[in-house]
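HOLO CASE FILE
Compound: NAP
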Amino acid sequence: MKIGILGTGVVGRTLGTKLVSLGHAVTMGSRSESNKAAAAWAKAAGKGAATGTFAAAAKAGEVVLNCTSGQHALEAVALAGSDNLNGKILVDVSNPLDFSHGMPPTLTVCNTDSLAEQIQRAFPGIRVVKALNTVNSAVMVDPSLVPGEHELFLCGNERAAKAKVAELLGELGWTRDRLVDLGDITAARATEMLLPFWARAMTKFGHANFNFHLAVGGPA
Ligand SMILES: NC(=O)c1ccc[n+]([C@@H]2O[C@H](COP(=O)([O-])OP(=O)(O)OC[C@H]3O[C@@H](n4cnc5c(N)ncnc54)[C@H](OP(=O)(O)O)[C@@H]3O)[C@@H](O)[C@H]2O)c1
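Model generated. Tokens follow.
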């Protein structure tokens, strides 16, 4: 499949490398056509890896992953262009983190709204699915880094879009039993609000190879 990745950071590069290794044609987008991190990634990832602007990546992808800085995600998606994205699935991996007051980061939006909802509202023609934002990039592409039962949450307004994303997540190693569909895009409030907890846990463990597990009993 043709996949566009918005973002040249560790998340975009890690997902891009894995997806190329699985045989997908990946175009990584950036603000600039000649981004050094993207060029180095494409060289290392090899055949199937291409680079360009956010707009070029959005245009090239049948499915597009938003792996941009949360504080600039709306700008990045705007640069990618609704004309290039309308009707397509945008997997929103970004988190609305503000590091300007030091660690741990705070959230720029929470409780009654989320970054995923802001993107969905600003670009109603895009099929936004929130996923992958609650695990570290290494775990995203290799769930076996964390032993035992643990899950990935997804949400979005459209069932068919979530089913397609679930297939892609399956290719990354996230089997169906590990996927928890939390409902419509407003559930992104919950998954984005896990990030302050996630950051505290990382400080405690000293590394990021951990994940959340929901232990579910029967109804009362
Ligand atoms: N690190 C993780 O393991 C992890 C795990 C889960 C979720 N996340 C989330 O995934 C996202 C990506 O994280 P990351 O660490 O890989 O990268 P990042 O440093 O948070 O973001 C890098 C991307 O943001 C773009 N960007 C920065 N300022 C911009 C602006 N003013 N306008 C438009 N785009 C701008 C950059 O564009 P250029 O390419 O042009 O420089 C670059 O592509 C974040 O939202 C993060 O919270 C990260």
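CASE NOTES: The mean pLDDT is 98. Residues 7-12, 30-32, 35, 67-70, 72, 75-76, 93-95, 97, 133, 136-137 surround NAP (CB under 6 Å).
CLOSED: yes
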